[in-house]
């Protein structure tokens, strides 16, 4: 499979070829030709120009070669770090820097290093002009012809030695490149002879994951994926071994309870290389055992205990909206939804808000760091073997995705340390997640360990804000763009309030009894699911048949939530926001079952999002209040989103005013 490692080696080898050609032509053609010039002065000037340019380009070509092979070495797996790359690097360095120093050793090491740095670096036109101004123009009488002849001989010998050494390095590189070509040829042959070769898809996706990587990089893959299925059918090739599926009958087989389809290696990039987490764990048995330790914390029956945590954040969120209503300023509602979701998850997990709603800013750059983590994990997951090799280096840079993950690891560890200092005395207050886990750990330290406490905290913090904020944004965006739906929802809320079935701040139980509100939430999450990439799974031992096509063991398949939600065979007029479809389907149990089977905003089966009920709780508590108390006016008729696993709106700018005056 063609990849940046092979490309890097190819570029480095081509650079060596240019270096060899430069040195050979200079020694065999250019310098001998200078001897034919009519005067010593002209020959001296020409020789100086040849020396200057050949030195500069030789050092730059060598630098490019060494950089390419160092890059390839760092990215290669241990078994592919062949010693030939070290020998090539050594001969390349000797041919350029070694030879150059030997023939210019009279300058002294420090002066030579300064000259190398100057010649390798990029010269501006101004600097080049200064160099020209420093040239001393000698008269013909001042130039010694014999001295010029000696300098020509010396320069010719330099390039002869350089040509020999770089030629040796080039030979090594060609042999190594030939090995890579055989590997690439093997991959191409394997692709052409594969029993799955008939599956359609983009041409380049047949040979390399680079096509998929490039489409992901553009951040619009949910739309690309839908278009690909419309063009090619229910099974589409996205890579040499990656296939996107759009088939309702395959959902249960791939994601259903008891499925042997484990998560693919793409999920390895969503964790520290030395750790495992609930979300990224590819071990089906271990994941099942871990999930059992946490299930009670996230169950529907536990939600009533967490409702006060959500109420406090919802009250503060409403206060912030009142401030915006009073000052008339525009603001990004999507950003404030994330502040709300972050503070709720902090309250539920650690018993305290993180302070996003209090301060109205990205505290310690947490939201920015989370975005970098998600982008990094999404892209590096295409080549998961790179993740452990790059993580150690990139984690030292705070601006990187790996640095963002390191930040959150420390953030959670610090929060847990502070929370443990408070102990488990919970008299007079609601137990948070950490406290419940600490009590369970005290009862059975072997079943619930410190690491289980850590991965619970990390999962909540890193996965608990984006998904909920996106879902909240989707609900409000569609309500604002469909005034009739907004009117119907307000009528339902007014009816429930007038009948005494709910207050101005409906409880979770009360909101669950509102059929139109439930339909609005469900339809908004269908129209704009939080995740927008295939949920990759690996075909288990023995292979499996999907939509009549046998998939061999190790093949990677996945269904994209957006593709499923926009399947016209399941959701007629799928691009229309119509909450009524869910209410109407209740009269047709078979149709409703089919719709629910393809409805997957929180995943499916044993891998269903643990925080699903908490996310629904957050939406159920705040949306009715916003709809009743405020009027929002979006500044744009469309919004822009970025899809790096999470399909996040980035410009949900609005103005707000109150509908109900505060007492």
Automatic annotation (TrEMBL):
The keyword Calcium does not apply. Its cofactor is heme. Heme binds at residue 609. CDD domains: CYP57A1-like (cd11060). One of its GO terms (biological process) is mycotoxin biosynthetic process. Keywords: Heme, Iron, Membrane, Metal-binding, Monooxygenase, Oxidoreductase, Transmembrane, Transmembrane helix. This is Cytochrome P450. It comes from Penicillium salamii.
């Amino acid at each position: 499979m063609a990849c940046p490692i092979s490309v890097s080696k190819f570029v480095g080898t081509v650079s060596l070829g240019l270096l060899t050609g430069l040195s050979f032509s200079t020694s065999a053609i250019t310098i001998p030709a200078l001897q034919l010039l009519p005067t010593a002065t002209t020959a001296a000037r020409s020789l100086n120009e040849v020396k200057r340019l050949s030195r500069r380009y030789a050092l730059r070509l060598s630098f490019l070669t060494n950089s390419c092979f160092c890059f390839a070495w760092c990215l290669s797996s241990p078994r592919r770090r062949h010693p030939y790359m070290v020998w090539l690097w050594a001969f390349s360095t000797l041919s350029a820097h070694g030879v150059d120093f030997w023939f210019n050793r009279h300058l002294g090491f420090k002066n030579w290093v300064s000259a190398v740095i100057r010649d390798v670096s990029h010269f501006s036109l101004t600097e080049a002009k200064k160099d020209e101004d420093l040239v001393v123009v000698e008269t013909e009488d001042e130039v010694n012809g014999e001295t010029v002849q000696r300098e020509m001989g010396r320069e010719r010998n330099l390039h002869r030695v350089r040509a020999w050494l770089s030629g040796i390095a080039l030979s090594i590189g060609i042999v190594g490149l030939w090995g890579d070509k055989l590997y690439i040829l093997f991959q191409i042959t394997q692709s052409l002879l594969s029993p799955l070769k008939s599956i359609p898809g983009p041409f380049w996706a047949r040979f390399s994951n680079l096509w998929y990587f490039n489409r992901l990089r553009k951040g619009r893959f949910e739309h690309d994926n839908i278009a690909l299925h419309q063009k090619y059918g229910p099974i589409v090739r996205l890579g040499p071994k990656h296939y996107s599926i759009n088939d309702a009958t395959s959902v249960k087989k791939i994601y259903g309870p008891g499925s042997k389809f484990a998560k693919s290696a793409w999920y390895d990039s969503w964790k520290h290389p030395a750790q495992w987490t609930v979300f990224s764990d590819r071990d089906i048995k271990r994941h099942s055992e871990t999930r059992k330790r946490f299930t009670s914390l996230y169950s529907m029956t536990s939600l009533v205990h967490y409702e006060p945590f959500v109420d406090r954040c919802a009250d503060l969120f409403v206060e912030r909206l009142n401030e915006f209503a009073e000052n008339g300023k525009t603001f990004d509602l999507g950003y404030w939804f994330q502040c709300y979701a972050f503070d709720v998850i902090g309250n539920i997990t650690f018993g305290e808000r993180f302070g996003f709603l209090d301060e109205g800013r990205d505290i310690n750059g947490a939201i920015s760091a989370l975005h970098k983590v998600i982008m990094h994990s999404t892209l590096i997951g295409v080549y998961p073997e790179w993740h452990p090799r790059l993580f150690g280096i990139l984690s030292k840079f705070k601006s990187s995705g790996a640095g963002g993950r390191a930040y959150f690891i420390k953030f959670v560890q610090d929060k847990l340390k502070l929370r443990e200092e408070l102990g488990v005395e919970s008299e007079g207050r609601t137990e948070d997640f950490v406290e419940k886990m600490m009590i369970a750990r005290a009862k059975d330290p072997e079943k619930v360990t410190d690491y289980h406490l850590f991965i619970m905290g990390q999962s909540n913090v890193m996965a608990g804000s984006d998904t909920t904020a996106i879902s909240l944004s989707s609900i409000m965006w569609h309500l604002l763009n469909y005034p009739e739906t907004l009117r119907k929802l307000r009528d339902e809320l007014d009816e429930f309030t007038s009948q005494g079935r709910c207050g101005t701040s409906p409880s979770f139980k009360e909101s669950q009894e509102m059929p139109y509100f439930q339909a609005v939430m469900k339809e908004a999450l269908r129209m704009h699911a939080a995740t927008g990439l295939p949920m990759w799974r690996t075909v288990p031992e023995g292979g499996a048949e999907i939509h009549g096509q046998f998939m061999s063991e190790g093949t990677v398949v996945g269904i994209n939530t957006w593709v499923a939600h926009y399947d016209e065979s399941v959701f007629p007029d799928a691009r229309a926001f119509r909450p009524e479809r869910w209410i109407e389907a209740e009269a047709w149990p078979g149709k409703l079952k089919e719709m629910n089977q393809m409805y997957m905003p929180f995943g499916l089966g044993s891998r269903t999002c643990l925080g699903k009920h908490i996310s629904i709780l957050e939406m159920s508590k705040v949306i009715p209040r916003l709809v009743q108390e405020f009027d929002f006016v979006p500044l744009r008729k469309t919004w822009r989103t970025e899809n790096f696993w999470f399909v996040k709106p980035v410009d949900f700018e609005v103005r707000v005013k109150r509908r109900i005056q505060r007492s």
